[in-house]
Every structure is written in structure tokens, then in C-alpha cells.
Amino acid sequence: MFKTQSLNSWSNWAGNQTSNPLSIKKPKNEEEVVTIVKEAKNRGLKVKVVGSGHSFTGIAVTDEVLVSLDEISDVRDVDFENFRVRVGSGVKLFDLNPILQRSGMAMPNLGDIVYQSLSGAISTSTHGTGLGFKTIADAVCGMRIVDGEGKVIRCDEQQNPEIFNAARVGLGALGIITEVTIQCVEAFNLHAIEEIIPIGEVTNNFEKWARTTDHIEFFWMPNTDKALLKRNTRTMELPSKPRNRRHALKRRWNRFKNEEIKQNFLFGAMNYAGKAVPPLIPKFNSMVAGENGRAEYIKNSYEVFASPRRVKFYEMEYAVPIDSGIEAFRKVVELIGDLDHYISFPVEYRVLGKDEIPMSTANNRDSAFIAVHVFRNTPFEKYFKGVEKIMNEYDGRPHWGKLHFQDHETLSNIYPQWETFQTVRRSIDPQGVFTNPYLDKVLGPLT
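^ thats the sequence. predicted structure below, dont judge the formating
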């Protein structure tokens, strides 16, 4: 029988969302998920699933029944001929990616954090970057879902296609995903070029680069005129092998120095110091931005896409139409210059191709994504509300797992297939077993 914990507290990765559920259940298989849902429904309780807790919103928060799918994380089938993999929905991306690599496969696109569960990543429209590519959810080609009645629904493009299309980005509102089939691609490497260059050069050329580069993004440090530009090109060329053991150790040290010491330890120390003495932040930002520099290397795709994130923060991210992206970014730069306090985290800019998933942030439009961050346990409301006001000028869509101040009345106007999703929601969870305050706010209460 599934494990049950009573009188437990839960918090997300950033620590800004907490709850005290009546019980935390850890089912080992789909049958136990069905039992949990039926028991909760009969008792009039709400059920929410939590992945790895990397959402900053209250999307998984409940004080009733919290379900972790960590133990439903097995690889069930590998179809080498069609490059498809069927897995338990609780599998973490950092576990899945090496398995795919060993099987000669890869996810078509990934974000820069791999700590999420697969079901959590797709449910919140998590994405990577590249105009020729789409969200992680777009790679899903089949699912098994336990609905609000405790019934198991199999869905794909042929079986229950309406449910399938909506549930690929379901916000946890359409049931508990127990199994996911992913359409993978042949394993590939990325030829990465990372360089620190003037922000004006980046913004003036980004549109051209975005249309000629597979995966591209930049990070601008506030109060500086520099940005880190990352351009990744897909290749079958193999990474160069180290000449000898000493060379291999040097490579590992350089990577540890860049990813762990500079990006995490020193950056974290600077943020603590900046929080204590805010006037130091511009100087620290200049140190992070550094002088002009360039790195070039080839690695397998998931190792390039992902980076360790050990400095905790709060984040807001908005998707706007691609043609408005740089203009919106420039307005964010102006906003930061007018704030009465300093910002110590970079502003991130990415692009993505459109898809047809109803609640995807890139639904029906090529999109630019602008993400802003603050150090954990520091005020963010004024900054984030200012950014959101800018994004509203462009019908911006907030990331479902990141902080925002929208509600269903405003959101319904910027999603062309809003009512399509709501129809599926009412049919699959008529009694609102999977609702919580966040979903009532952003999707509206079930009626």
C-alpha cells in the first residue's frame, strides 16, 4: 500500500510557498493513485500533486491531500525504432536525460533547470529556447491520467484527443498524470559559444541571431552595459577528448570553478553581502558581468542546456509576441533604472516557436520570454508589478509556475483556446477534486 505521512509540512524549493496537508501520500503505482483520488473524493477532500517544488506559485499547495509521484518514476518502454520512451510521470529530468543518452536519444528541447519532475515541467509549460523548437510539453505524444472520479484515461492524438491536447499543459487541474510517452530525437551534441559583449550589440543583433541559431539566450546584469550571450548549435560532432589525465582534470576543475564557485558560491556570497549593504550591488554586478570574454566547447545536449542553481531566488517570467520582445526588454531596463533599490540578479531573455497547446504560454505565437529574479527573502512586489505592467502592454502571458499577479478575468483574454481548456476541465474534474486557491484564481472556480 502507498506510504502516508500525517501532520507534515511542505515547502517549495524557494521557500515562499508552504502548506500543512492533512496527509502526504507517496503512491507506488497507478492503482494506488486511483485509490487516493477515490478516497479523497468520497471524503470531500482536495488532492494536489507536487513534483520537485520548483514552482514559485501556489500551484501545488494544499492543506488537504498532497501527493508525491517520486516513486512512480520508472522507464517502462523504449521504442528505438520510433525514438519514443514511456515513463512514470514522477521521473526527474536529471535522471531521465542520462537514460535517454545511453539509449541514443534526447529530449528535443530543455530548459536550464533539470531538477523538475517530468509531469511538473510539462504541466507548467516549462520551456527552453530556440525559434525552431517548442516547449517540453510539445514532445509529449501520450499520457495516462487519473481523473476526478478516479477513472484512468488513456489519451493521445487518436484516443481522447481533446483531453490529450489540453492535458499536456494542464496546470494540475485535469487530474493526476501517471504515465508520459515522449517523442524524442536522436541524441545530439551542442556546439556552445558563450561570450560577454555589450548589451547594445546584443539587442541590435538578437533578432538576426535568433533566426540563424538553434538555441539562443542572453543574461543582462542590471547596472552594467554587458550581457552574457549563449548560442548553441546542434551538431553530431563529438566533444574533443582530453589529451591526457592532467588535461582531463584541468577541464573538470575549470567547469567546477565556473559553475560551482563563480555561478553559485561567489554569486551567493555577493547576494548576501548586497542584501546587507545594498549600495554594493552595482559593483558586484559589474564583477559578475566581467570583462569581454568567450568560451567555446561541445558537449551532449542536456549537459549544455542545464546548469546547477544553488542560489535560491524568486522569479517572474512573461512570454510576449516575438516582434515585441526586445522593445519590452528595453522597457524593463528603464524600469530597473528608475527603481529606488538595486537588482542583483540578471534579466534573462529567450525565444521559442509557437505551438497549439491551449494553455501553453507560446500558444499560437512565436514568443520572447523575459524572466526577472530577486534573491530569496528580499522584497519583489514593486519590481515584479512594474515588469508585469510592461508585459500587459503586449498581452504578455505569465509562466504558470512563476510569480505573477494575474487572475482568470485577465488571463482569459490572452488565451485563444481558453474555453476549450475549461470545457475539458469541467468534464474531467466536475467536482473540483484537483482545485486549490491558486487554480481558482488563475482558472476561475468550477461552476
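The domain at 189-398 is CATH 3.40.462.10 (Vanillyl-alcohol Oxidase; Chain A, domain 3).
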